[in-house]
Design brief:
By secondary structure, the protein is mainly α. Helix content is 62%, strand content 0%. The protein has three helices and no strands. The longest helix has 15 residues. The radius of gyration is 22 Å and the shape is rod-shaped.
């Protein structure tokens, strides 16, 4: 008869972290633009306004 081994703490932590990340709501669109530098790219494309 084969005994079932408990998963290691590291495996459980990785699984729990992945589960929590999946349930987290997506970030605010402004935060996404800021992190990807979209505002900087837009500023570089647009003509300079005075």
């Amino acid at each position: 008869m084969e005994q079932v081994k408990a998963p290691t703490k590291e495996v459980v932590r990785r699984w729990l972290r992945a589960e929590l990340e999946q349930r987290r709501p997506p970030p605010d669109p402004k935060q996404i633009r800021r992190e990807l530098g979209w505002d900087l790219a837009r500023m570089a494309r647009e003509p300079y306004k005075r």
